[in-house]
Amino acid sequence: MALSGARFRTLSWAAQFLAYKRPSWKCTSCKTLRPTSITLPRRFATAAPTKKPYYVTTPIFYVNAAPHVGHLYTMIIADILKRWRTLCGDTDAQLLTGTDEHGMKIQQAALAAGMDTQAFCDMNCKTFEALAKVANLDHNYFIRTTEPAHRESVQYFWEMLSHRGYIYTDKHEGWYSVSDETFYPQSQVHNSLDPTTGRKRMVSAETGKEVEWSSETNYHFRLSAFQDRLLELYKTGFITPSNYATDVVKSVASGLQDLSISRPAERLSWGIPVPGDETQTIYVWLDALVNYLTKAGYPFPPGQEGNLGWPADVHVVGKDIVRFHCVYWPAFLMALDLPVPRNVLVHGHWTINHEKMSKSTGNVVNPFFSLDRFGVDTMRFFLAYQGGLAGDADYDNAYIIRDYKKLLQSGIGNLVLRAIGSSKGKLPSYIASGHSGELPAANEHDSQFEQLLKETPVKVAERMDSLNSRAALQDIMALVEQGNKYIHVSEPWKNADKAPRILYNVAESLRIAGILLQPFMPTKSKELLDVLRVDNSRRTFSAAALGSDAEYGEGMKKTVLFPPLIVEQ
Ligand code: MSP
What we know:
The strands form five sheets. Strands 1, 2, 3, 4, 10, 15 and 16 form a seven-stranded parallel beta sheet that branches. A four-stranded antiparallel beta sheet has the order 6-5-9-11. Strands 12-14-13 form a three-stranded antiparallel beta sheet. It is an alpha/beta fold. It is 44% helix and 14% strand.
């Protein structure tokens, strides 16, 4: 017999799993009953409980259109977080990215392209996979929501919600936006004239996207039951940066309506059918959000929920999809007593001339072109350095060229050339003296710069812990900037006695910056550390401290790390 709700919730998750009277639906791909149908991944077999792997995700991308620079940005932010954790010693940190392939939007786009829908998804999914590769994403998984494993995971998730009484059928009336894949109430839509056709239409007040009236019977989720628990969750710093939390709290506190979570299959056939009711298709956002669980091994074998990373440490999302990740998603998880993600990191949008870069406006920048034109690491650097978290950021090729020249060429590149050039082959001996504490006495400039060398890695780690990769990168670049100022005022080329200390400190700034830059510019930072002859075993975060490496520098040669951009020649 199933346990009563209250009693059930007092059991541990593992006990719940065992005690649960599980619905006996057939697993479509293997045709056996769950739970015996679950084939345990190999790492489950020897389940000695260990620390949960760090787990970060990107949103999964709609395959109705080609990727643009906004998509690249969200990928890069997540990749930096993952690489940072790896740098800090979490060698099993996990990054998930992928494609969102169901829903009305995709169904209509495939129709418009005159293609079979699956073939259309297969084709467009490849472009996102290619982007992840070209942008040097260190992802562990690329999920597609059309995968059989995901379908099973979503259907199982649905069954659990249903079994716990959180799903009911009702008539639903409202305005549906295909572009946003969401319903809006009457209060959130208004009349508008389409500027290109002069046609009158209804649009969402929030996104400006066209909506159509829909009246249908479908399944609903009892979202309204979660208002208090959601408001409690927001007090824990669930949403970063906090400006987005303010809006979410305001909206949830003003009341939550239950959520329509299916569409009649006659309208939407391209999706996952509701288990036991083929006349209904699961709402694309419920389907999409579960991707984060699918790749974490859901449904979880008892006692092994965290083995593949759940709960996610960070979901990286753009500001337009906050409601789905910060309201619906935690509510769905709470309904099943599953742990909620630790953090949702929201970022602003890239704009062009202060208008959101988006396919519907037609002002998109093809990320493949910019990666090719400026170089992968230059683009990673630019997006991370200028990209908005709390706010938006404006995109312009001129800004990329400006930052390349000022921060990379004249910043890092110049400091490398000056350090190696001024030391005339003696840098390894200065480094050895620096390490053994045999340098000339420090003056005020030296002490100030040494203080910065000590503080920077600590500050950068704090910034990354609070998920502010932009501020972390700015701190690293401030160290480089100060390094250039320090060598300029200290003039080691005029002062042979003082040169060992000055050049040692400058070499340390480059070594420390090189280590810390690895998550941001994996290739360029490797080149920098190679030029400095830093051993591969001493490139982790723990080595990014003043005086922690005595053995680099031997055989360094002047190298141009950031040559003139081809676009300028
Ligand atoms: N499929 C949903 C996400 C489901 S996650 C369970 C989706 N896809 S999307 O392709 O439209 O957008 C993917 C991500 O790109 C979102 O985080 C979105 O905010 C981001 N961006 C889209 N345009 C953007 C900019 N102009 N600038 C920055 N990011 C932008 O939403």
